[in-house]
Structures are given as structure tokens and as C-alpha cells.
Amino acid sequence: MKQIKAIINPHRLTDVREALTTLGINGLTVTEVKGYGRQRGHKEIYRGTEYEVTFVPKIMLELVVLDEQLEEIITTISSSAHTGKLGDGKLFVSPVENAIRIRTGESGEAAL
């Protein structure tokens, strides 16, 4: 099993979620986060005063998938979140030792 953390633009969330649903992914955690990478934030004007926004709002998706599904899901997230502009986001993949469903006690792949 692998955990995927995807940091994407908030306006791409619906497209990514719908694409994952078509693959049969029915478990997903979404968190509103802020950060920056190469973008280094941006400048905005509010009431005539310019100020710098250092941390850009993003969405972080977290999901645990079977090893066999990994490449297809990475491709799906990447293509759904892609705009071709700076700040499209990043994907991180980590191994997962075990998963346990609290309600039933199922563990491993059965808990997904």
C-alpha cells in the first residue's frame, strides 16, 4: 500500500475528485493548506495598498491505495490538476505499513 499526498490548486479539486471517483476511489481526505514553492507568493492590491501574499492557498489530498493502482492514480491526479502554469502542485508517495478500519477491525488491504 502507498499513501499519496497531492498538493493542488483549490479550483482543480472538483476535477480531480471526479476523475478519482471514475477509478473507483471512494476514500479521500481533503485539507486546506497554505504554502509556497517556486511561486514565492504573489502581490495583491487591497484598497489601493499593495501587499505581498507569502503563503498561497492550496488543497492537500491524502489517500491510501494499493500498489497496483498507484501509477494509474498518479497519472489521473496529474492530468486532472494540470494547468501548465506555475503552482500546479506536487505529488508525494510514501509506503504504508498497515491500515486498520476502526469499526470492523479489518486490517491491510481489506481496510481500504
Automatic annotation (TrEMBL):
Which Gene3D superfamilies is this protein grouped with?
A: 3.30.70.120
* Segments traversing the membrane: none
Q: Which SUPFAM superfamilies match?
A: GlnB-like (SSF54913)
Q: Which GO terms describe its cellular component?
A: cytosol
Q: Does the keyword Phosphoprotein apply?
A: yes
- Does the keyword Ribonucleoprotein belong to this entry? no
Keywords annotated in UniProt: Phosphoprotein
Picking any one GO molecular function of the record gives: enzyme regulator activity
Q: Which PROSITE patterns match?
A: PII_GLNB_DOM
Fetch the PANTHER family from UniProt: NITROGEN REGULATORY PROTEIN P-II, NITROGEN REGULATORY PROTEIN P-II HOMOLOG
Q: What is this protein called?
A: P-II family nitrogen regulator
Q: Which organism is this protein's natural source?
A: Thiomicrorhabdus xiamenensis
